[in-house]
């Protein structure tokens, strides 16, 4: 049992991050059927990506924001942005569900992809600038909460979503059930309850809500989700969580 959980976490870190954890036989399969590995990977990657935020009270805000932006993509990689790019092209194309699904599979990069990726990176950078103006503990709580929250949102996609085509998304939805969402939810809640961080809880909730945006669009415009929606949800959820957390701090 413990071996399967460790394999699932290795599989999650290997798929969701750039951390050199190394794959072993069975890790991918263990991850695919263990949604609880999503928030665990989010906690690990969120803590590592938040390291530059330790300097919020010593370095300039722009330097810290740049450090956070670079740290996020150094830890989680840029492969999830491919989902943002494909979603951007699908958003602007004319036609019905079948046409939009075709665009998602197309490797050609259109203006929708360029704009969506640019907005996503800019939004994360601006979120990092907001974090850089906060006290260290508040900034880290929001950053970690947002990362855990967006991974919890991905777990929700796997547990409750319906895949529209064969591929990565279907591997996750076939490997999870609604009942299996209880474990990732409990793990995610524990990451903000144990340190008693209200800002982390706000960021977590904001990230989950952010994941709901591409999910809702995909159900209406595609008839279901796929791997690109998972990737796009990961990026959008993080941004939503960070910005909502910063807003909550400014209003407190």
TrEMBL record:
Task: Please spell out the taxonomic lineage of the organism that makes this protein.
Answer: Archaea, Methanobacteriati, Methanobacteriota, Stenosarchaea group, Halobacteria
**Key word Glycosyltransferase present in the record?**
no
Q: What is this protein called?
A: Adenosylcobinamide-GDP ribazoletransferase
Pathway(s) per entry: Cofactor biosynthesis; adenosylcobalamin biosynthesis; adenosylcobalamin from cob(II)yrinate a,c-diamide: step 7/7
Q: Which Pfam families match?
A: CobS
Reaction catalyzed: alpha-ribazole 5'-phosphate + adenosylcob(III)inamide-GDP = adenosylcob(III)alamin 5'-phosphate + GMP + H(+); alpha-ribazole + adenosylcob(III)inamide-GDP = adenosylcob(III)alamin + GMP + H(+)
Q: Name the InterPro entries on file.
A: CobS (IPR003805)
- GO CC annotations, alphabetized: plasma membrane
| Transmembrane regions listed in the UniProt entry | 36-55, 61-81, 109-132, 138-164, 176-194, 200-218
Report the EC code(s) recorded for this entry: 2.7.8.26
Instruction: Give the protein family.
Output: Belongs to the CobS family.
Q: Which GO terms describe its biological process?
A: cobalamin biosynthetic process
Annotated keywords: Cell membrane, Cobalamin biosynthesis, Magnesium, Membrane, Transferase, Transmembrane, Transmembrane helix
Q: GO: which molecular function terms?
A: adenosylcobinamide-GDP ribazoletransferase activity; cobalamin 5'-phosphate synthase activity
Query: Which cofactors is this protein said to need?
Result: Mg(2+)
The task this protein performs is described as: Joins adenosylcobinamide-GDP and alpha-ribazole to generate adenosylcobalamin (Ado-cobalamin). Also synthesizes adenosylcobalamin 5'-phosphate from adenosylcobinamide-GDP and alpha-ribazole 5'-phosphate.
Q: What organism is recorded for this protein? A: Natrinema limicola JCM 13563
Q: What HAMAP family does the record tag this protein with? A: CobS (MF_00719)
């Amino acid at each position: 049992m413990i071996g399967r959980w460790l394999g699932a976490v290795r599989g999650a870190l290997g798929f969701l991050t750039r951390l050199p954890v190394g794959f072993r036989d069975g890790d991918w399969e263990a991850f695919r059927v263990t949604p609880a590995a999503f928030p665990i990977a989010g906690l690990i990657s969120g803590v590592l990506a938040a390291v530059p935020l330790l300097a919020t009270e010593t370095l300039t805000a722009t330097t810290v924001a740049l450090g956070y932006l670079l740290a996020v993509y150094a830890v989680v990689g840029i492969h999830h942005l491919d989902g943002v790019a494909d979603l951007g092209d699908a958003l602007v194309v004319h036609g019905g569900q079948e046409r939009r699904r075709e665009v998602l599979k197309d490797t050609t990069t259109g203006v929708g992809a360029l704009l969506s990726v640019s907005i996503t990176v800019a939004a994360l950078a601006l979120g990092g600038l907001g974090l850089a103006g906060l006290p260290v503990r508040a900034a880290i709580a929001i950053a970690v909460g947002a990362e855990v929250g967006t991974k919890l949102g991905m777990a929700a996609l796997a547990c409750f979503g319906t895949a529209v085509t064969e591929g990565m998304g279907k591997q996750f939805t076939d490997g999870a059930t609604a009942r299996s969402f209880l474990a990732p939810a409990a793990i995610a809640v524990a990451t903000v309850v144990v340190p008693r961080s209200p800002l982390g809880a706000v960021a977590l909730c904001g990230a989950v809500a952010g994941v709901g945006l591409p999910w809702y669009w995909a159900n209406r415009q595609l008839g279901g989700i796929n791997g690109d929606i998972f990737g796009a949800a990961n990026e959008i959820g993080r941004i939503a969580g960070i910005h909502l957390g910063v807003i909550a701090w400014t209003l407190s």
